[in-house]
UniProtKB/TrEMBL annotation:
<keyword id="KW-0479">Metal-binding</keyword>
<dbReference type="Pfam" id="PF21621">
    <property type="entry name" value="MPI_cupin_dom"/>
</dbReference>
<feature type="domain" description="Mannose-6-phosphate isomerase cupin">
    <location>
        <begin position="271"/>
        <end position="323"/>
    </location>
</feature>
<dbReference type="InterPro" id="IPR014710">
    <property type="entry name" value="RmlC-like_jellyroll"/>
</dbReference>
<dbReference type="InterPro" id="IPR051804">
    <property type="entry name" value="Carb_Metab_Reg_Kinase/Isom"/>
</dbReference>
<dbReference type="GO" id="GO:0046872">
    <property type="term" value="F:metal ion binding"/>
</dbReference>
<keyword id="KW-0418">Kinase</keyword>
<dbReference type="GO" id="GO:0016301">
    <property type="term" value="F:kinase activity"/>
</dbReference>
<dbReference type="InterPro" id="IPR049071">
    <property type="entry name" value="MPI_cupin_dom"/>
</dbReference>
<protein>
    <recommendedName>
        <fullName>Phosphohexomutase</fullName>
    </recommendedName>
</protein>
<keyword id="KW-0808">Transferase</keyword>
<dbReference type="InterPro" id="IPR011051">
    <property type="entry name" value="RmlC_Cupin_sf"/>
</dbReference>
<keyword id="KW-0862">Zinc</keyword>
Length: 330
């Protein structure tokens, strides 16, 4: 099997606006206002809208079906022994044309108990364009207080109780499931996630969505808000969520390993064999594996099957983000 270069896969009519940055990164002329996310090598569908969000391969079939048909070739024997045919990873490009609403994602126990799913939605951001973000509460927030904010759409109160971080291009941040957050306008990030589309909206006023009806995963807010981490996080706690900065290569977020792995590399080098999603964030060159050589440039996205073997990157100016599932336990 060989690596596959993937075109953009941007679900339409999302409830928040995107900008021109995904199009600019990929070098395409067209863009749509409400297509802020590019779901890369996705086997995950938009919540309640299957098959929207699934990656379609050049042969017309979905990546999900291809992996189901031959999981060992795509994911490797060790991965299949640990996780079955589940890639255990979703990668997105996210272009925030406006500040995203304050929201949170359930963790694994909550998703299992209430939705019958194997994954929650811990995520991470590798920042390509600077962003101001809001992340976690600065103090303990009572259940009734949070429910009141949501019912009243008290955005100022919510944001006023959250940490504000100014992220630079190159920064990496882990966002544990449950932690309330909002990505600021102008951000462009490579986003790694557990492979679900589960969001609990704490804010929706001014966005193109009926959050009172659609913001609680069909569970009702009395249940859904129990998934939100209402603890006060100290500045030191939040700082520990930050991993690499722009000057760092290698493993950007070691603390994310139970959920996914993310590396950044510059220049020519070899990558270990294994299922991977490669995002070229700068430069140009070639990516070779499985007897095939692909020309790649800034904005290219490539899915690499495990059976393609080691990957050779060639290009002095290449800079890539390599996204992988969690490593099977040894």
């Amino acid at each position: 099997m060989r690596p596959v270069a993937l075109p953009a896969n941007q679900p339409a009519d999302r409830f928040y606006a995107g900008g021109r940055q995904i199009a600019a990164l990929r070098g395409t002329a067209t863009w749509a206002t409400h297509e802020p996310e590019d779901w890369v090598a996705s086997t995950t569908a938009v919540f309640g809208q299957d098959p929207v969000g699934l990656t379609v391969l050049p042969d017309g079939g979905t990546l999900r079906d291809a992996i189901e048909a031959d999981p060992v070739a795509w994911l490797g024997a060790d991965h299949v022994a640990a996780f079955g045919s589940d890639p255990a990873l979703l990668v997105k490009l996210l272009d925030a044309g406006q500040r995203l609403p304050v929201h949170a994602h359930p963790d694994v126990p909550f998703a299992a108990a209430h939705l019958g799913l194997a994954h929650g939605k811990t995520e991470a951001w590798v920042v390509l364009e600077p962003a101001r973000v809001h992340l976690g509460f600065t103090r303990d927030v009572g259940a009734d207080e949070l429910a009141g904010w949501v019912a009243d759409q008290a955005t100022d109160a919510m944001l006023g109780a959250m940490h504000t971080l100014d992220l630079a291009a190159g920064d990496a941040v882990l966002v544990p499931a449950g932690l309330p957050h909002a990505i600021g306008e102008g951000a462009l990030v490579v986003e790694l996630q557990e492979p679900t589309d589960l969001s609990i909206l704490l804010e929706w006023d001014g966005f193109a969505i009926d959050g009172a009806a659609a913001g609680h995963l069909g569970l009702g807010f009395d249940v859904a808000l129990a998934a939100v981490d209402r603890r006060g996080w100290s500045p030191e706690d939040v700082a520990r969520l930050r991993g690499a900065t722009a000057s760092d290569d290698g493993d950007l977020l070691p603390g994310a390993a139970p959920f996914f792995r993310v590396e950044r590399w510059a220049g020519s080098r070899a990558l270990d064999a294994g299922f991977a999603v490669v995002v070229v964030v700068d430069g140009s060159g070639t990516l070779a594996a499985g007897g095939a050589e692909l020309p790649v440039r800034r904005g290219a996205t490539v899915v690499v099957p495990a059976s393609a073997g080691p990957v050779a990157l060639d290009g002095a100016e290449l800079r890539v983000v390599v996204c992988r599932p969690p490593a099977p336990a040894t």
